[in-house]
Amino acid sequence: MSSTSVRLRYFAWLRERLKCESEEIALPPEVQTVGDLIALQRRRGPEFATLFAPTSVIRAAVNQNFATPNTPVGPGDEVAFFPPVTGG
Amino acid sequence: MGGASLFSVLVSEAPIALAEELARFAPGDGEAGGLGLFLGLVRGEAGGKALAALSLEHYPGMTERAISGILEEARTRWPLLGGRIVHRVGRLAPGEPIVLVIATAAHRAPALAATHFLIDWLKTRAPFWKKEIYADGSEAWVAARAEDEEMAARWQALSGAPGGVAPAPAR
To answer: How far is A32 from chain B (nearest CA, A)?
Structure first.
């Protein structure tokens, strides 16, 4: 992984809708939090804009810990996006 | 189970080996006076439609870590002597056990309360996603249920704890 990129992972219907399990993207310097990353995702195309809309229910994790919009994101991090969990 | 920790987690595609799981705790070492157990089973019906199977997805690594965190939280609330959580992933047929929760303690009250807490928190705080596959061949991802969130939140209200492992909305 390059020194300025993040690993993104998608689960459940988010993975199916984006037809992507995992990808590496360059991290622009202005992206410093999960909220910034979501705003960046929204600009990647119509499907991204829908799935990452402000009204979306999706959750996030950074380095496998549940995250909030304020959670910091930096180069080398693994950021996951997924629907609310439905186990048990 | 020689040397095995009395608190452990397993996420697996294999069927839950109930007899082996119980043998971890019973017969006991004489210290535990009770064992609470919850076994979740796959229902054969969902929203009025016959179910052919459930498909369970998880986040390898994070899922195990999240469940271990929930087990740790239970240990801060009750004087537990042992705990075991087994959760299946992959494809499951109606009737099959999907999740096993065991908690042991010196007395029944903490064992039963911790078992209830563990399954409630597991449902809302561990990264698993269920897809229903219906008998007619169609399929749909299960939506999170508000009742599950309310059941889990009840435990938060009881302790006044901030609930450090709770998944907040991404925005």
So the answer is: 15
